[in-house]
Amino acid sequence: MYIFQADQLSAKDTYKLLSGAVIPRPIAFVTTLSSNGAVNAAPFSFYNVVSSDPPLLSVSVNRAEGRQKDTARNAVKNGEFVVHVSDEAIIEDINETAANLGPGESELTHTSLHPVESKSVSVPGIKEARIRFECTLERHITFDNDQGVTTADLLIGRVVCFHIDEKVYDAEKGYVLTDELKPVSRLAGNHYAKLGEEFTLIRPS
């Protein structure tokens, strides 16, 4: 077994180990509003559920050489954002939004995706997404590396409105139908994964 001391690894090597080992990761497709009113959209795979009561989601936005990304800056400034579940039908368009564009340019113009008005926040959602969560910013936490450079913005969002397509929801049981949703997860590098074989384990009482 290889053993690596964290303080002897470069930031790049640390990222490669973590992103290659902590898999599969769900992908948050996040929209925010830029200062000029343009809809900013970008995917983030350092993302998960924090709590169901209250309903909280976490999205970690890594900085580039200490520079805050548009998503984090907009979310912190406006206190709102929308998180979408990434699925097979829209993942190629989502990937296009990862391009480095100017802060006032909407990534959606490079895709076939369309903004749609939200119910409880001012930030538009994405019409084609089958599940989306309107969020208000519950907490913003920054993290610094050993050199004192801020390297990540952790956004904790409180879900204030859920949007779920009828085709991916069993209203009688209250369950999301994962086979219909067809979520996509992130692996390492440029690799992604679809849902694979499922199995059931009963939790011990």
What would CATH call the homologous superfamily?
Answer: Electron Transport, Fmn-binding Protein, Chain A
H and E string:
HEEEEEHEHEEEEEEHEE
Task: State the secondary-structure class.
Answer: alpha+beta
Strand order of the largest sheet: 3-2-6-9-10-5-4
CATH class: Mainly Beta
- Per the CATH scheme, the topology name is Pnp Oxidase, Chain A
What is the mean pLDDT?
95
Number of strands: 14
Helix fraction, binned, reads 10-25%
How many domains, as an integer? 1
Low-confidence stretches: none
Global shape: globular
How much β-strand is present in the residues?
A: 35-45%
Query: What Rg do the Cα atoms give?
Result: 18 Å
Question: So how many helices?
Answer: 4
CATH architecture: Roll
End-to-end distance, in Å? 35 Å
Main β-sheet, in a few words?
7 strands, antiparallel
Enzyme class: oxidoreductase
GO molecular function: oxidoreductase activity
Cofactor: FMN
Protein name: Flavin reductase family protein
Describe the protein.
The chain has helices at residues 11-21, 70-78, 91-96, 178-181; strands at residues 25-26, 28-33, 39-44, 47-52, 55-62, 80-85, 115-116, 125-126, 131-144, 150-164, 169-170, 175-176, 185-186, 192-193. It has 205 residues and is an alpha+beta fold. It has a single domain (6-193), classed as Pnp Oxidase, Chain A (Roll), CATH 2.30.110.10. A hairpin with a 2-residue loop joins strand 4 (47-52) and strand 5 (55-62). The model has no long low-confidence stretch (mean pLDDT 95).
